[in-house]
Glutathione-dependent formaldehyde-activating GFA (Pseudoxanthomonas suwonensis), 134 residues
Amino acid sequence: MSRTVGGVPVQPVHMASCHCGAVRLEVELPDGIVEPRRCDCSLCRRKGTIVASVPLERLRVVAGQDQLRLYQFNTMTARHWFCGTCGIHTHHQRRSDPNEYGLNVGCLEGINPFDLGDIPTSDGVNHPSDREPA
């Protein structure tokens, strides 16, 4: 958990946006940036984002809902949203926990995700949902 990143405070209610500003999010982060991580699945390794967990009710699209585009693949469970204008991935509804969003930390205004230091990588190639039941 991080309440400051690179000396910049993570506000309890923080704004996030895509690159062009068409999509704007309001995110409740009372505990700062929780469990930042990367993923090595086929999509995440290509987009290269650091994501943090946010309960669904703590993320609101406040502008640009009409600009958001949805991408789904494989099991069609995860819902990945990106700006239709600039292409930046802003958030996704997680496959491993559909009650949470994975927020693109790079979209948080004033926060540089590279200031978080070493970030663990989740094994998305061998996702638990892909395993056969025992």
In short: Residues 11-110 form a domain with the Metal Binding Protein, Guanine Nucleotide Exchange Factor; Chain A fold (CATH 2.170.150.70). The radius of gyration is 14 Å.
